[in-house]
Amino acid sequence: MNWSTAYLLVFHGSRYAVSAIAASHLAQMLRAKLPNPLVNTAALELAALPLHQNIVNFAQVAIAEGYQTIQIVPLFLSQGVHVRKDIPAELAQAQQQLGTSINLRLTTYLGSYPAMAALLAQQSAQISSPTAKRILLAHGSRLTGGNRPYEELADKLDAVNAYWSVAPDLTKVVRYLVSQNTDTISIILYFLFPGKITQAIADQVTQLQAEFPQTDLILTQPLAAIPELADIIIEHLNI
Q1: Cis link prior to 168 (omega < 30° from 0)?
Q2: Global pTM?
Q3: 3-state class of 3 per DSSP?
Q4: Which of 16, 55, 76, 132 could join 184 in a cystine, given CB atoms 3.0 to 4.6 angstroms apart?
């Protein structure tokens, strides 16, 4: 069998096992939709092997099955150091080991796909109250200008920004919106996979709901749990 392109989905990695399970489930959804069925996942961090070795191992399987190219798909929502430096460096190291036996191509990162805004809007489309507000909750960045993409995305969603790792945090933003007589707040979770952070956020929302029973707090689920995400990824692959 002589296929053209195989696909390797690269995610951050987590000590929380459900993150890897969600990544595998996403790969399975892609496998069912793509004409070329070789799709797998690899973690950048917290994996048994470094990413470049996992790329090499995957490439050896692809070569044996007749594939000519592997597209490396970064499942990251922001263009931080991992996307700009770490993944390209690991890919270059893998390509050096593989030589010309197969071509490795790095695609754009997931958060840069224009369709992501529509997907997030769809998640909060059930909000209809005239005093309802949206919060886009992302991890956040301490890099200069690092949060600008989140701000641009929030503008498209008619939402305000809150962050997990930098100010303003979720509690501060929720308290401000409640003070403005907001009766419903849709918290759009801009995280890809479930993990320790998303569980902590869910716990925090439960505490805030108890503090403000007069305001409905609605937390969306991580993006990887949404079947439409697979279609968005496929639209941006060079099939």
Answers
A1: yes
A2: 0.90
A3: coil
A4: 132
Of residues 220 and 127, the one with the higher pLDDT is: 220
**Could you tell me if 124 and 162 lie in one domain?**
yes
The stretch 162-191 carries a mean pLDDT of 97
How many residues are there in the chain? 239
Burial of 33-68, coded b for 16+ CB within 10 Å and e otherwise, reads: ebebebbbbbbbeeeeebbbbbbbebbeebeeeebe
**Which pLDDT value is given to residue 184?**
95
What domain range includes position 211? 115-223
Q: Are residues 9 and 105 in the same domain?
A: yes
Tell me if 161 sits within 8 A of 168, measured CB to CB. yes
What total of structural domains would you count in the chain? 2
106 in the same domain as 9: yes
The dihedral over CA atoms of 223, 226, 230, 233, expressed in degrees to the nearest 10, equals -30
Joined together, the tokens standing for residue 106 give 């790095």
pLDDT at position 238 over 80: no
